[in-house]
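Exercise: predict the fold of this chain.
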Amino acid sequence: MIRFVQFEEKYIPQMAELLAARHVKERKRFPFLPEKYENPEEATNVLIEETNKPFTSGLVTLRGDEVIGYLLYEFKKNATQGRHVSVGYSSLAMKEDEHPRLVRLMYAEVGAEWIRNGYFEHVLFAPVGNDPIILELLEQSFRFDQRYAVLPLETYVAKSDGTAKVTFRQVTEDDISILEKMASWNSIHQASAPAWSPITKESLDKVRAEYEELAEDTEVKMWIAEQNGIPAAFHVYYPAESNGSLATPENTVHLAAASTNTDMRGKGIGKAIADYCFNEVEEDGYEYVMADWHTPNHLASYFWPKRGFQSYMIRMVRTVDPRISWADGVH
């Protein structure tokens, strides 16, 4: 017989055992993930940091006095996603020999609270290496939304064939006008089929302002490919923070943005700038490149795995029909 209880600090040691065991399994499939979190002591530190976040709560599943599963969650609110509940990468684990249906049971238990409090958007960062958990979430009407992936630079083989006649250079503060032109490339592509992500003038203005700030950030490295003086593609990188994260390898650089001029696609320019930039960041001493993309973006979903990126984490989202708060078939 199992029972659900509210999270308390006394359960963290057993929760850490579950998380460390999950990480061992993940690393068999994705060995680039940081090894130290296979140690329950290190997993404990992750859980302490997670549970100390504001507006965070959780559910623990017990069989007798043994913790067999847990689900932590944080209530959030922002202009992009509105009111939503977020379940982080380290916030869901269960004992390996338990039936994966336990994920459904825990979600049903905590989800009822979320709905009562008016949170109809549920976001969960799932470990790709755990297929049964992914399936359970899909069957609970979660959908794939964003993939997160890593490229080990040591094994990367250049893919371009030299046919793209472009030159490369690093972007400087003097390139503000060029950045303004390039800022909209990604947004315009995301608005097209089959992603159909709406883009407003206000959001485009915000993106342009952010790109201008990038040129002034000393930690950011930004390269541009040009063809006959015309901007053809760009990549943006910054150091990825790996401290305390099960999901970020050490010595990793984050590919924050990349795009090719919409009028120049299909000519090998994307491959060429990827080859160039990956070589540059490897010479800077990085061992891995981390990237993420919106799953309906069919170009990104094809292009980055072809470069060798391995998806290890996926953001899954469920949007509950808000009419459930009043449409009970009676009133």
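Check your answer against the key: Helices lie at 12-29, 40-51, 101-116, 131-139, 176-190, 201-214, 269-283, 298-307.
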